[in-house]
UniProtKB/TrEMBL annotation:
Classification via SUPFAM superfamilies: PLP-dependent transferases (SSF53383)
Pathway connected to this protein: Amino-acid biosynthesis; L-histidine biosynthesis; L-histidine from 5-phospho-alpha-D-ribose 1-diphosphate: step 7/9
Lineage of origin: Bacteria, Pseudomonadati, Pseudomonadota, Gammaproteobacteria, Candidatus Kentrum
GO biological process: L-histidine biosynthetic process
Similarity remark: Belongs to the class-II pyridoxal-phosphate-dependent aminotransferase family. Histidinol-phosphate aminotransferase subfamily.
Protein name from the UniProt record: Histidinol-phosphate aminotransferase
Entry keywords, A to Z: Amino-acid biosynthesis, Aminotransferase, Histidine biosynthesis, Pyridoxal phosphate, Transferase
UniProt gene name: hisC
GO molecular function: histidinol-phosphate transaminase activity; pyridoxal phosphate binding
CDD domains cross-referenced by the UniProt entry: AAT_like
Known EC number: 2.6.1.9
Cofactor(s) essential for the protein: pyridoxal 5'-phosphate
PANTHER family attached to this UniProt entry: HISTIDINOL-PHOSPHATE AMINOTRANSFERASE (PTHR43643:SF3), HISTIDINOL-PHOSPHATE AMINOTRANSFERASE 2 (PTHR43643)
Length: 433
């Protein structure tokens, strides 16, 4: 019973399993023991802190002490709207007092980290009193070998978002322009506005990047172009021929960032291998992450591959400890765990089929996706359907902020999670007979 109780602990057993071999099941139980150990340590830590600090006083500022701090910042910061991530499970539990929640909102890996990554995490716990390697030497060496590039071409980030911001900070100022597509990742306009640069949003074509139009948008003040391939939140992708043609027309004084956060999920053979193009296009920067297919979203670890001179400039601005010890160790292990990535892809393919069949049955149009998510038109205000789904214990992602007010973005989960969402969506739409 004690063992069953540990495995049934919320947060440890939400990732249900399909029918799998006893060997794989045993390995999953080993993984659960590692997670259970960390979970118990967390509980002990919280109890210790509660005992040491039983009473905490909340500091409140009365009106006479208030200050118009917003007047102290530049206009681009004052008007900046912060990025809104997918609603956490714990937040919905607090708001509605419900449990057994399914989250399909943040394009996370429903399997979480692989066993090798979990073992690496457990091994490095005892050394957390020391700072991490500020240069990330071991991970950079592993990435260099994996990608067949020099380690001097790699820049590590606190997630690939961190690297995207570094590029904007290093290469653009308030005098410059940054080009990106309509319906593209929200971080592109955010980092552009944060540094005071002018954002050029190019209208999308068939929900994705219109590269000929983006090429035309490049002017004498353009310093950076952001391209997501596949794109989030629409899931569209760009083939090698189209991207190559675009890069040929870009001046070498303009940095082109190809964001490949979802590259592992692409199945088509014409998907470009941008890392191999770096010798042809020295102004190209490729960003990738361990958050998606590798299941390390909570550790925040990503990287870029670029010309060594670009990497040198990025590393001058990068904070020395932006990648923590646990993330570095887990990423090295995850990079070697190709079996976990392959299993992730198989589950994603099956889940994508499960979702699209349901959308066809419900008569809903969706955007064909090359990622681990699907954006669907719910034929009305997406926010309203999103709110109904919340009350049914299902979290998805409204994308009105991306210019898609009638759509929802659905992350692909495990079979039972997908089924739970489909039933909740059917009920929310009033389609159930």
């Amino acid at each position: 019973m004690a063992i069953q109780a540990i495995f049934a602990t919320p947060g440890l057993s939400r990732r249900g399993e399909e029918t799998i071999s006893p060997i794989i099941l045993l390995r999953q139980h080993e993984k659960q023991w590692i997670i259970a150990t960390l979970y118990i340590r967390q509980i002990v830590y919280r109890l210790h802190n509660h005992t040491c600090f039983p009473h905490q006083t909340t500091i409140r500022f009365s009106p006479p002490m208030s200050c118009d701090f917003i007047s102290l910042v530049s206009g681009n910061i004052a008007s900046l709207k912060p990025y809104r991530p997918g609603k956490p499970i714990e937040e919905l539990e607090r708001e509605l007092g419900i449990s057994n929640i399914v989250k399909l909102a943040s394009n996370e890996n429903p399997l979480g980290p692989g066993l090798q990554a979990c073992e690496a995490i457990a091994r490095c716990i005892q050394d957390l009193g020391r700072y991490p390697d500020g240069n990330g030497f071991v991970l950079k060496q592993a990435l260099a070998a994996h990608l067949s590039v020099a380690s001097e071409m790699i820049t590590l980030g606190n997630g690939s978002n961190d690297v995207l911001e570094l590029v904007a900070r290093v290469f653009a100022t308030a005098e410059h322009e940054i080009v990106f597509s309509e319906h593209a990742f929200a971080v592109y306009p955010l980092v552009t506005q944060a540094i005071g640069a002018r954002g050029i949003e190019v209208p999308a074509a068939r929900w994705g990047h219109d590269l000929p139009a983006m090429l035309q948008a490049i002017g004498e003040h353009t310093r950076v172009v952001f391209i997501a391939n596949p794109n989030n939140p629409t899931g569209t992708r760009i083939d090698a021929e189209t991207l190559d043609s675009f890069l040929q027309g870009v001046p070498n004084t303009v940095l082109v960032v190809v964001d490949e956060a979802y590259r592992e999920y692409v199945e088509e053979s014409d998907y470009p291998d941008c890392v191999q193009w770096l010798s042809r296009y020295p102004n190209l920067i490729v960003t990738r992450t361990f958050s998606k297919a590798h299941g390390l979203a909570g550790l925040r670890i990503g990287y870029s591959i670029s010309h060594p001179d670009i990497a040198d400039l990025l590393n001058r601005v990068r904070q020395p400890f932006n990648a923590n010890s646990v993330a570095l160790a887990a990423a090295v292990a995850a990079l070697a765990d190709t079996a976990h990535v392959e299993r992730t892809k198989r589950i994603n393919d099956t889940g994508r089929e499960q979702m699209t069949v349901a959308f066809h049955r419900l008569g809903l149009e969706y955007i064909p996706s090359a990622g681990n998510f699907i954006t669907v038109d719910v034929e009305g205000p997406g926010q309203a359907i999103y709110d109904r789904l919340l009350h049914k214990g299902v979290i998805v992602r409204p994308v009105g902020d991306y210019g898609l007010p009638n759509h929802l973005r659905i992350s692909i989960g495990l079979e039972q999670e997908n089924a739970r969402f489909i039933q909740a969506l059917e009920d929310s739409l009033g389609c159930r007979e």
